[in-house]
Structures are given as structure tokens and as C-alpha cells.
User: Fold this.
Amino acid sequence: MEGRKGDVSTSREAAATARRKRPTILDIAERAGVSKSLVSLALRNDLGVGVQTRERILQVAEEIGYRPHVLARALRERRTMRLGVALTSLENPYHTEVFAAVEDAADGAGLSVLLAHGKRAGGHLEERINALLDLNLDGIVVISSWADPAMLQTVSRRAPVVMIGRSLEPVDGIDSVNNDDEAGAALVVGHLAARGHSKILHLTSSLRPAGLARRHGYEAAMRAHGLEAHIRVLARTRGGALQPDLDAALADGYDAVFARNDVEAADVLDHAWDHGLAVPTDLAVVGYDDSMLARRARPRLTSVHQPRQAMGARAVELLIERIDGRLEDRHEVLSPHLVVRESAPQA
Amino acid sequence: MEGRKGDVSTSREAAATARRKRPTILDIAERAGVSKSLVSLALRNDLGVGVQTRERILQVAEEIGYRPHVLARALRERRTMRLGVALTSLENPYHTEVFAAVEDAADGAGLSVLLAHGKRAGGHLEERINALLDLNLDGIVVISSWADPAMLQTVSRRAPVVMIGRSLEPVDGIDSVNNDDEAGAALVVGHLAARGHSKILHLTSSLRPAGLARRHGYEAAMRAHGLEAHIRVLARTRGGALQPDLDAALADGYDAVFARNDVEAADVLDHAWDHGLAVPTDLAVVGYDDSMLARRARPRLTSVHQPRQAMGARAVELLIERIDGRLEDRHEVLSPHLVVRESAPQA
DNA sequence: CTGTTAGCGCTTTCAC
DNA sequence: GTGAAAGCGCTAACAG
Assistant:
């Protein structure tokens, strides 16, 4: 906007040359000697376009490198064939693994997937979700226990929402799919009890729904086994460390730890390494999620496997059902299973 | 399309009730008793709208929960204020860390970021990039050494592209920012030599540009230190394991390993654990990237730090410059530094 | 089978 | 100050 008009238009032209204007169906129509609607129909394989004509049109489209303008199309169709995924913990491998599962499923359904990453604090996640939805996506899957129910409800007025993971109460108007956290926790306690452990600590840093459910599952299972429940709630600092130090938490002579997820189990493993504690001899450790962290850890981590492929697939199906008009809410719960590895091997 | 018209419209109505039609500027105009263009102007703070009127319009917009229709706007403006990021290895923490850096930078510039994840094989990445670009994003940053130069060039005709990471030759028409891999490798060799190591193995699984550059840097540095270079090229299986087994690679009595990246360094650490090798006493290990894996590993991994924050920020700046019309290519190289930890401590 | 036409929601001259 | 009108690229009636 500075300089003379001449300058501006010159530089515009230069830029335009560098980045050529994209061809439209009109260009195809012209080159193929048909009308623009014909092209539109041919492009979308509408029957009722002469085979010859269609052939020619497709060919021309190919030639001039035509790409449909999805924005224009979406403006008319009110459908983008795109799903959004909102995440808060890109740094937790389990979450990216779930994302990959959703992506696989969507791919299979001919939908493409966009990811938005929001920080947990403030309204950041909501902002990102809204920015995503501004693109008129057909639906959105939220992978985050940090999503506020009220916020999700607001969002769901714009597009169908399915949440992978747990919310305290089912949220009106949004579907969900998660694993049975209570059952998962019971699996862990059962396994540890069978190994002969009795001083089993449950370590958690989260008062979020999934964490709570695992904790309740742990308590119930301990009771069922006639064992006393021990719980330590730690906070996670900005830097990612657990506070107060694990030292204190582990000082009471526990012989096994069930951590709320793999990340925290890995923290325990690290702590054991740093303090010369032998795992599983001195301390058995079990995680939750069975993420890359569990496979990668040394000793390898026994962990509860969440059926992420199935969860991702189901999430996409639920979304599609919603898009097609389903009105009732659906909440699916899949069963986890325990993957036994070195950090708490079979008895 | 089936059933009588009445049925259809009834179910339509039901769905419409559940998911209300979004308000448009026309709704605002009506409610505020002005014309639609007035609203548009007011919404974008165009001076030349009565203060009173503007006030009222904004208020009404707020009231009815108006959200601009970015697709419609983009259709006119040819600008979406959105950037795309294309990735191939969501499972490599370094890549997600770079993504987060890009996101931070974009946030700062008022741009929002969408992520697309492509598999490395076939044309999958290209497909995903094109799907992303179909949304008329203003630019795209590619974080993948798997991106084919010719493909990138094609893509860059649609929107500005900047690549974070290395390509063999600078690609015409696209910008890049990366770290100096040769210098990074030299840092490693220098450090290991200073610790008194002489049988230093370089382990790599990649014949991609960044891997090659590190390898060349290693060779040159070894030569400079009067040491003999030893290189093992391993393949990675679908499952993620290195093939053939590390056993063979490490059988020749090396006292230090410089791995191509943290993922492979972690493989070496795991291997050492599995075989009772003490690190760093029996074997010193150094990685590259200084990702979460390095911080998390036990012993903690000495690794070359790529300045990802700076790289992400620079990438976004380069993109913005392009959007504003820059035509010459730019290739930036930032300096890495070594982060010394337990797997190869200070001499 | 083919072409014409009217928008989708928004921005932007250009008159009033 | 304000409003009317054209048009971004595409789809979907509807007439020929």
C-alpha cells in the first residue's frame, strides 16, 4: 500500500507469474468446447454425460492440471469430506498413536484428517477447535481429557463431536469411545497380586476423569483382593517432572507401583535407575496405555493396552453416523488387556 | 432422496434443529437494520462506518454468535491465514517437537496451523499435502527428509513451501532451514576423541540427505583427528527394529557409537541393556536431535541439539516473506550444539 | 444429452 | 455514511 500504484501492480504481476492462477472448470469447458456444468458433472462421474465427452473433459482436466477448488465446492455442498482431530499432548506417544489410528480409519472412509494442537491452559484448545471448524469440517474427534464438557457442548453445535477418552459424565450431544479404565486397573491389580505383591502403590498425577476411573478401579480391586490401597497424587511441573519428588512417594517400602499411564510409569523406571533400584526385583512397575514408551523402556514395561485401532475406527464410524443424521448419543466402551513385559513379568 | 418430499424435509428440520444453521452477515444486517455490506465493513474495522452503527453491528454479531465463514471469505480474498505442516514421522519425538516450534511461531504471527501426516511410502505424502493445499492454505512447511524434491517443486506452484531439514541439493523455488549436520557430527567426534575414544562407530539407517551429511561430517572429522572411520548402515524393518541385528554391528569391539539420530541411539542403548553392556564404561553412545528420547533415556543420552525453536520461527518468517512476494530462494543453516549427558560424559 | 441460471457467504467497487 | 450489484469457483435445478 506504499509506493505508487504502478509499483504495486508490477510486483503483483511478478508474483502472479511465479504462482500461476489455478485453472477452473471454466477453463476446461472452454478448452473442451462444452459448458461449465457439463464439466462439473463429468468430473463427478455423473451418469448422463456422453462417454466421449466425459473422456475428453477428463483428458483436458488432466492436461491443464486441474484441481477442484474444495472451498468453492464446500461453499455449495456444505460438506468438506474432512475431519478434524484436536489434541493436547503431542508429546505423549499414546495420543499420537491414537491419532494415527483415527487417520487410518478416516483414510479408509475416504475422509482426510487435519490435526490441531491446543495447549491445555486457558481457552487455547477451544480456540484451535473453532479455527479448525471454521474450515467447515464435517466433524471432529477430540483426544484429550482436558476438554471441558461445556466447551465441547458449545462446539458440538457447529459440528458432530466425538471424544476419545473419558469424561466424568457423558456429555449431552457428543459421542464418546473409550476403554474400560476400571477393568484395566483391575487387570493390573490382579496381575500384581498373583505375583505375590501386597504393598502396591497407585501413582497418579491427574484428577481428570480417566485418572480417577483408574484410581477407583484400583481401589475396588485392592479391596476385592483384601489389600490395602495406597495412593500418591503427584503434580507435574511445567518442565514435566513430578512434584514432590518420587523419593518421598516411594520411601514407604512398596514392592510394586501401578502408574496412571506410561509416561508416569517411565518416570518411575527412571527414578529406579537413578537410585539403583532393581526392577522388577526391588520394585515391579506397571503402566497404562501400552504406548511406544512401554515398548521402548528398559526393562520393558508391563502395561494396559488400550485398543486404539478399534477406538479410532469406532470414533470415525460414530462421526459418520452423526453426519448422516443420527440424533441419539452413543457412548462406547472397549475392553483393555494387559501386556506383560519385564517390569512386572508373569509370576 | 428417497421417500416423499414431506419426509425428507421433516428429517431435515429435525437435524437442523439439532445443528442450527449458522448466522451470516445477512442475519446481522437484518437484525441491525442495515445492509449487508455495512456489516462486512464494520466487522473488519473499516473506517468510514459510523461509530454508532459499528457499535450496534458488533453487538448484534456477538448476540447471535456470529462467526465469519472463512471459506466464503477465502473464496474472495484468496488468503486463509492458515499454514499447513506436513510430517512423516509422528512417532519420532523430534519431529513433533519441531512441529510445536512452528506452531508457536505461527501463533505469534496470528496464523493458525494445520498438520497433515503422510506415510513415507508411495505418493501418500504428496496426496496429503495436496489435500491440505486444497484448503487454500497460505503456505506449507514440510518436516520430512522423505519429501521428494520434484514433488516439492510441483507443490510449490500451489503455495510457498519451506522445508525444515535437509535435501541433497537446494530445491529450486523452495526455501529451507536446517542445522549444520556436518558441524554437528564434528562436535560429536571431537567430544568422543577428547574422551579418549578411538574406535568410534557411526551407525546409520538412512541414505537420506541429513543422514548422509552427518556421515560425511563424521568421516571428515575422524580424518581430521587421525582416526579411522567405521560405518555401519542398518535397515529398519516395518516393525521399527534395526536389521540386521545390532549384535553384528557392535561385535567389533567399538568403544563408542555415534548414531544418526536419537531414535537409533536409543536402539543402541536398549541393545546395551539387553546384553549387559555398561554405558558409558563399555560403550559410549551419542545421538542426534536432542529430543525427548535423549532426556528420557537411561543413562541420559548425550546428543546434538538442533535449535528447533529458532528453526521453526525462521521457517514461519520465510513463509511470510514469500507470501508477501519474495521471489528469490533462501536457505538457512543454523548451528547445532552438543548437550553432554551420561551416555558420553565430559572427559 | 447439453446449456442456462441461480445462488453458497463474503468482499469490494461504485453510485447515491 | 450507506446500499446495490458483481463475482470468487462450484453445484444443481430446470429448460431445451
Q: What stands out?
A: Residues 34-38, 41, 48-50, 53, 72, 74-78 of chain A lie near DNA strand C (CB under 10 Å from a C1').
